[in-house]
Amino acid sequence: MTVVAMQVNGKQVSADVEPRTLLVHFIRENLQLTGTHVGCDTSQCGACVVHVDGKAVKSCTILAVQAAGAKVRTIEGLADGDRLHPLQAAFKEHHGLQCGFCTPGMIMTAADMLRRIPKPDETAIRHELEGNFCRCTGYHNIVKAIKAASEVM
Amino acid sequence: MSSAIIKPNGIGAAAPRKEDYRFITGNGHYTDDINRPGQAYASFVRSPHAHATIDAIDFTDALAAPGVLAVLTGKDVAADGLGGLICGWLVHSKDGSPMKTGAHPILALSHVRYVGDHVAVVIAETAAQAKDAAELVNVSYGELPSVTAVAEARNPAAPQVHPEAPRNTCFEWELGDKAATEAAFKTAARIISLDIANNRLIPNAMEPRAAIGEYDKGTGIYTLHTTSQNPHVARLVLSAFVGVAPENKLRVIAPDVGGGFGSKIFIYSEETVCVWASKKAGRPVKWVADRSESFVSDAHGRDHQTHAELALDANGKMLALRVKTIANLGAYLQLFSASVPTYLYATLLSGQYDLPAIYCEVDGVLTHTAPVDAYRGAGRPEATYVVERLVETAAREIGMDPAEFRRRNFIRKFPHQTPVIMAYDVGDYEASLNEACRLIDYANFPVRKREAEARGMRRGIGFSAYIEACGIAPSAAVGSLGAGVGLWESAEVRVNPTGSVEVLTGAHSHGQGHETTFAQLVSDRLGIPIENVEIVHGDTDKVQFGMGTYGSRSGAVGMSAIQLALDKIITKARKIAAHVLEAGEGDIVFEDGRFTVAGTDRGMAFAELALQAYMGHKFPTSEIEPGLKETSFYDPTNFTFPAGCHIAEVEIDPGTGTVRVVKFVAVDDFGNIINPMIVEGQVHGGVAQGIGQALLENAVYDPQTGQLLSGSFMDYCMPRADDLPSFDVGVTVTPAPSNPLGVKGCGEAGAIGSPPAIINAITDALGIRDIAMPVTPERAWRAANGL
């Protein structure tokens, strides 16, 4: 076992975990932040995307110990108190989610995308989403929501 | 019923979804997000072989591994006298004999019959310990040859899946009038035939299946949290057939469920084991599928081989259709396995066309593969693919415009009795075809094609005029066809004393947005804000019974039940209002959430009425019971028949074989629409899955070893955002006459209509007769280059 400490959603956290613990399991099980999901075991689906030091990372792909000392943001920490992040608001307004399972990863990926590419066109958005699967929406409204959010951010 | 004026958040409004907030903020409650005190974890030992005997299981090392609480095998299941998993639909062969298959044990006893079959379960303190220990279970297998391909299953030399089903034949079923069809073919001026494969698919809802079983020693009550589309059916199967607990001692909760697409209808081994093992281990038992487990053990979809022939007269009028299909059922029958390639398939072979004679034979075969069952569309995509590929091919071969050929053969008078059971009640197929042609600008396609050619690209256009049967289903009708249950739906409307409302529904929402659309109906009818309506579903302790959500049934059947319960609420409320307002019942008008005495200013709001109903001070409770709660069990009078026209345009790069869908138009007639935003979303998702089938997705078993080669997202190509275009979605409306809301259902149409549109576009672009799905770049490149 090893003690791992990091900042998650602005709060300092630490836990004693097996060294093989993935960041996603640390977040879900040790911190009980279950908004971050596990949809595959091959780092394809993107349901587990969080921000590590400001960058989108598939949290199933790194060990918790690799994130020691980092600043991590999960979907639970994206809104500003009761004020939704523009991407969250846009996903709701444009029906960018159905079952909701891919949504946290999708929104966190999109937040990183808009940080790097503030005004992406449809082609760029679709390309940037290549690491996130959605089985419900056909991506149509996800693309629309990200575009809409980019226009108000 | 359609409201002339759309009320805010009422029927027809694009109301924002009530369920969204929890999902966009990470506050959903999916099964894996739930943890029970003292919970242990299950990991399954699965067969690495497609077919083998189990000679011995040595779990000494596993039992001694850190944290392990128990290792259970098929012998323990048998010792406890549990039954096996069941198929809920009995199909008969044409000789009258019932379908043949072997038992489906929860954990394999003597044989394993597909890669991923369940052999043993390890229960441990942590998930990692359970997985580690599962690796230590030493199973001695006697490896046997296997058969996985539908075309090979009935070879006399093929290995047998079950001794009860000789030549791996579960059933040889037929539908339609053979003699009339043969006679029509004899008079045909032209016969068009095609050999068609419908590729095998893996549903891949983004949330993997999961379960937590829990046993309360004090009360003897079991609780199962599980990823189910139909928790009441799960409870019924687990109690009445598996016998794991009496129905009154088993509570099944399906909380937030991350997509289903049919794959979460069935009652699988894993959740059954979690319930059973929770008592044996004395601890709640949780299991969450790895995606690799989902690939091998979730029910797969499609996998048909078909030979189809269409007979035409000299004027291009369809005379008859003859279809012979072999359907792969996998190693065991799941809940709907027998009905999907029979009654949900052949009954739709008339398509949108006036076809005087149809004869269809379906042979269901068993193979050493994962069970095949309902996947989005379930039988209807297969039927549509046969009909629309054949129709497009016929149009080309007789030199007629494919739109014109369809127009010439459309059914135009309703009701229309097809030769294959279904009685279409209403529709306007030409309206959706015309609207789709307008949206895609069909007239100017030749210009776009020439422009693409100038860029070195081959551009093609393809039609698909689909029909499906939804609103599943009238109980007596499905009963006569072999269903083991009725397919009604229930609703309970509870009005609280403050005038807010809870609706308990037997439907289950796992992405469809019922919490919004069902609330829109209530808000519209009772004239109360949508915020005051709560939709309760997915818990057998709260909802008395229900059949669940699949087959695009929840609007037509589930909402109709709510509608009827609301009728009863309003009827009773009127009686109470008459007493409170001291007027005759006939003088009470209920409008916009207010009860008034006609021609006066005397009245009361719905919330005031609700309070009066519970106080019981102002009406005779000997005549009218206090309270305001009503129930309805609604059984539809017919299927509904959503229909529409999809048109795809593709561009193919002959240098690389890359197929790009450049335009996709879907015009659907879903009858009345409750929430157009949600309906469009359903179409988008369905079309994406259909394009996935046509271009990307394929479940492949190795013919020698029976290994699933496409067993991860690295091998099974899921549609990504940049594989798809934005879609152009339109509607036409003919309200369904068979239910009080006039709705038809929209969940599956996209997946049903789109694959033939894509393949018709590709064959048009390349000037070829046929190409197999999925059209990978390699296949397209070969075809484009005549290889």
- Specify the CATH homologous superfamily of the largest domain in chain B: Aldehyde oxidase/xanthine dehydrogenase, molybdopterin binding domain
Which architecture of the largest domain in chain A does the CATH hierarchy give at level 2? Roll
Terminal CA distance of chain B: 56 Å
**What is the SS-derived class of chain A?**
alpha+beta
Write down the overall mean pLDDT of chain A: 97
**Residue-averaged pLDDT of chain B:** 97
Strand content of chain B: 15-25%
Describe this structure in words.
The complex is a heterodimer of chains A (153) and B (787). Chain A has helices spanning 23-30, 86-93, 103-116, 122-128, 140-152, and strands at residues 2-8, 11-17, 49-52, 55-58, 71-73. With 153 residues, chain A is of the alpha+beta class. Chain A has 2 domains: 2-76, Ubiquitin-like (UB roll), CATH 3.10.20.30; 86-152, DNA polymerase, domain 1 (Orthogonal Bundle), CATH 1.10.150. In chain A, strands 2-1-5-3-4 form a 5-stranded mixed beta sheet, with helices on both faces. In chain A, α2 crosses α5 (140-152). Chain B is of the alpha+beta class and 787 residues long. In chain B, a hairpin with a 4-residue loop joins β9 and β10 (221-226). In chain B, α14 packs parallel to α15 and α17 crosses α18 (749-766). The radius of gyration of chain B is 27 Å and the shape is globular. The interface between A and B is large, with 56 and 58 residues.
